[in-house]
Specification:
GO terms for molecular function: DNA-binding transcription factor activity. The chain is built from 12 helices and 12 strands. It is globular. With about 400 residues, the protein is of the alpha/beta class. The strands form 3 sheets. A 5-stranded mixed beta sheet has the order 5-4-3-6-7. It has a 5-stranded mixed beta sheet with strand order 10-9-8-11-12, sandwiched between helices. Strands 1-2 form a two-stranded antiparallel ribbon.
Length: about 400
C-alpha cells in the first residue's frame, strides 16, 4: 500500500476476506488465511472485526475431522443490502437483495413508452417502496443503488412509435441525482445490457471462460464484452454496443441498417401484434402454434444478421464463447441460440478459433439483478480500482 496507508491497507484486506468468503460460502480462519495470503494473526484480527460489524457470522463447529474442530465463518446474509432499478423501453423494475444476492423484494411497472418525468418518478417510487420494507437498522446497511438503463434512450422515439422529440427529456435528466435525493443512497448508472452481462458473470452459470461476447435480446439488442474474466467497458465506455453493428451494404442514398433494426424484440412484438397475438403473453410463455410460427419467421431474419455480426466480432477479439440471453421465454431463447450456432457454422471461419455459443441462465431479470449486484461487488471487491469512469465494475470474477 502506498505511503504506509494503514487505513487503506486494512480496508483492502477486509475486502479481500469478504471476497474470499463470498466466493466460497464459508471457510475457517486458517483457510481464510491460506485463501487470501494473509498471516494467521492478520486474518484472525480482520475476521473478528467483520464479525463485530455484522458482515460475517460463525457457523456450528465442524467435528469428526483430523485435528481440532474448526469453526466455519460465513457471510451474514443480512450484513448488507443493495437496490437495483432497471429503466427500460417498456417497463421499470426494482429489486432489493441481501449480501448473498438473494431477492428480498421486487416490483415491476409496465408502460407504453418511457416518457422521462413519469418514468423517473415511477422508478424512484419503486425503490423507495422497497426500502420501506427494511427496519431502520437494516436500512443503514444498504450499500448503494444501481440503475441500469440504455445509454441513448432519447434516440429511439421513432422505433417506439412516438413523436419526434418525445424522449428528449432524457438528454439532460439528472437520474442519479434524483435517486440520491429521494433515497439518500450512493447511486451509480450502468448500461442495461452490460449490467445483464455482470449478472451472468456474478450469479449465472453460462459464462464459464475468461473471454465472452454477451448478447442481450431486449426491446433493443445490446451486449457486453468479457476479457480476461472482467467486464470490459472500453476507453470510451461503449464496448459491447452490438446493436450498432451494420447488417449489410448501403442502399441507394442510405446508410446500411443496424442490428438494432433487425434483431431487437420490438420487431417481434410488432409481428405478434399484427398476427393477433398479445406480445406480452407470448413472450411470457412462448406457447401457441401461431405465436411460435411468427417467432420462427422473425428468428430466420434475426439469426441471419446476428450470425454475421458474431463472426465479425470473433475476427476482432478471440472470444471463447458467445452467450445469448434476453426476455424471450426459455424455449424460444434456446431455439434462437441453437439456430444462431448453426448459422455461424455455415460461414467460412478459416483463421478463426471456434467459440461455444450457448444460452444465458438468468433471463428477463438479468438487467435489474446486475444493477443490484454491482454496488455490492464494488463495496466488497479487493480491487481498489473497481469502478472505471463510467461507473461499471472492472473486476467481477
Amino acid at each position: 500500500m502506498r505511503g504506509g496507508d494503514t487505513t487503506g491497507l486494512r480496508a483492502y484486506n477486509e475486502r479481500l476476506v469478504m471476497h474470499a468468503l463470498l466466493q466460497t460460502g464459508m471457510l475457517s480462519k486458517a483457510e481464510i488465511a491460506r485463501e487470501t495470503g494473509l498471516s494467521g494473526q492478520a486474518a484472525s484480527v480482520i475476521v473478528n472485526r467483520l464479525l463485530e460489524d455484522g458482515l460475517l457470522v460463525k457457523l456450528d463447529k465442524v467435528r469428526g475431522q483430523v485435528g481440532q474442530p474448526s469453526t466455519p465463518i460465513a457471510p451474514n446474509p443480512d450484513g448488507a443490502y443493495s437496490l437495483g432499478v432497471k429503466i427500460g423501453r417498456r417497463s421499470v423494475e426494482a429489486i432489493l437483495i441481501n449480501l448473498l444476492g438473494e431477492e428480498l423484494g421486487a416490483s415491476r411497472v409496465r408502460y407504453d413508452a418511457p416518457l422521462p418525468e413519469p418514468t423517473i418518478a415511477t422508478a424512484i417510487s419503486q425503490a423507495a417502496g422497497l426500502l420501506r420494507h427494511l427496519s431502520p437498522a437494516a436500512r443503514s446497511r444498504v450499500v448503494g443503488l444501481g440503475v441500469a438503463m440504455p445509454d441513448e434512450i432519447h434516440a429511439w422515439s421513432a422505433e417506439l412509435g412516438l413523436a419526434a422529440g418525445a424522449l428528449d427529456g432524457w438528454r439532460d435528466a439528472d437520474i442519479a441525482g434524483a435517486f440520491a435525493r429521494e433515497t439518500g443512497l450512493p447511486v451509480t448508472l450502468y448500461n442495461d445490457a452490460a449490467a445483464a452481462c455482470a449478472a451472468e458473470m456474478i450469479a449465472g452459470h453460462a459464462i464459464t471462460r475468461r473471454s465472452a461476447l454477451y448478447i442481450y435480446l431486449g426491446t433493443f439488442i445490446g451486449g457486453g464484452v468479457v476479457i480476461d474474466g472482467r467486464l470490459y467497458r472500453g476507453e470510451q465506455g461503449n464496448a459491447g454496443a452490438i446493436g450498432s453493428m451494420p447488417t449489410g451494404p448501403a442502399g441507394p442514398g442510405a446508410p446500411p441498417g443496424q442490428l438494432i433494426h433487425s434483431v431487437s424484440i420490438f420487431l417481434l412484438e410488432r409481428e405478434l401484434a399484427a398476427g393477433g397475438i398479445d406480445p406480452a403473453a407470448a413472450l411470457a410463455d412462448g406457447s401457441g402454434e401461431t405465436a411460435n410460427a411468427i417467432f420462427d419467421a422473425w428468428t430466420g431474419t434475426a439469426v441471419t444478421d446476428l450470425s454475421r455480426a458474431v463472426v465479425s466480432a470473433l475476427s476482432v477479439i478471440d472470444f471463447q464463447e458467445v452467450v445469448v440471453d434476453g426476455f424471450l421465454p426459455p424455449a424460444w431463447r434456446d431455439r434462437f441460440t441453437q439456430r444462431l450456432a448453426m448459422a455461424v457454422e455455415h460461414y467460412n471461419c478459416s483463421g478463426l478459433k471456434t467459440a461455444t455459443i450457448t444460452a444465458g441462465s438468468i433471463g428477463p431479470m438479468a438487467r435489474v439483478l446486475g444493477a443490484a449486484m454491482l454496488p455490492l461487488k464494488g463495496r466488497f471487491s479487493p480491487d481498489t480500482d473497481l469502478l472505471v469512469r463510467s461507473g461499471m465494475a472492472r473486476d467481477l470474477m
